[in-house]
Input
Amino acid sequence: MQDHVIYRCVNAACARPMPRPVNFCPYCGTAQETGAHAQEPGGRPAQRPATATAGMQEERPKREAAIAAAAGAAASAAAAPSGWSDAPSESLSPVPSGLSAPPASAAQQAGAANAASAPGDAVRPEEGAAAGAHAAPAAPTPDAHRFGRSGGARPAAGMDAAHDRPSKGAGAARQEVPRPAIPAKPAAPQRRPVRLRWWLLALAILWGMWLWAKPSARKTEQRIDHAIALARDCKGSAAQAELAALRSSRATPEQLARLQRSLDEEAAACTRRRQRNKAWSDTSSAVEAALAAGSPDKARTRLQAFVRRWGEDGRTRELKERIQARQDERGGGNGGARGSSGSDAGDAHPLAVPARQAGGGAARSTSGRSAATLLAEARGDLAHGDYASAADRMSLCLAMGDSHYRECLAVKAQAEREGMY
Output
């Protein structure tokens, strides 16, 4: 029955078992040399054939030289600054063809050399490191303050010579990696100037908006004339509403002042027109009553008082003609009486006192009583608020021309003053 052989990693730090021989450890990556130590299940090293032992003894000097060279290269790599992108690369000596791959570190290569050697011929790590130091001295460590900084000082001349000197085994000089030039930032494209047609279009739009928003002077004048016409027709509320609307619009202060002045004048005219109509109504009623009673003289007096106060118009002229016609009719009926009285007067004595003068005292007393009656009636009309009737009665009183003239004048002035308000 064949014994089971256990292969272990040559790296003393790893030393993990493997089911079969491999070139590199799957755990730590250390190169496994041909003829690595295999262990039996009990942990004892497997017995090597005599031919293998002799061959390994013959290759021992070569292996020691390779280990020394690898140790020196590892020391140089460890001394180099880590993390510097612009640090010069070390030119290492090529690994001899007897080794499959370069060791990862000095400790790993020393362990591999110790594991590959025979138990009796094992080389200690201290001896391997010393031999590597004597074989290939490590390059001086570059100063981090003087090397690797952009724009800083160059390293020392010895370091430059050591790094710039080509390796003996490589046979090629160090080459710098070319860096691409930073492209220039493209300039922003210039804005094209605005064409003339767009300026003209903008001006046309602004002109149209100005025409649409500008208040028309003709429309404002038409509204003002309409408000004045309303005030002339005695529609004061509608005229005032139009004035308020024009104030909220864009009418000029001069236009508003003219409209306000016209409205005030028309309001006063409307008030006077209403008072005249009321006075005419009272006067026409009194004249008709006097004509019906057969007193054309009283009707004429009342009409004359109205004309002096309010002026003459077509209606007053028509009424005046009616009164004159009634007086003419009354004078024609009394013509015979006047003729007979004239014949009697012709027979009278030439020095006799006329009957009119003889009865002058009685006539004056009759006129005095009539003036007093008119004054009493006028005061009654004032008490009842009939100022037009009171003024008409006082006009008759003034027409009589008697001693009550001043009293009639004062009552008439009072009636007219209170009638205006």
User: Anything to note?
Assistant: The two ends are 154 Å apart (CA to CA).
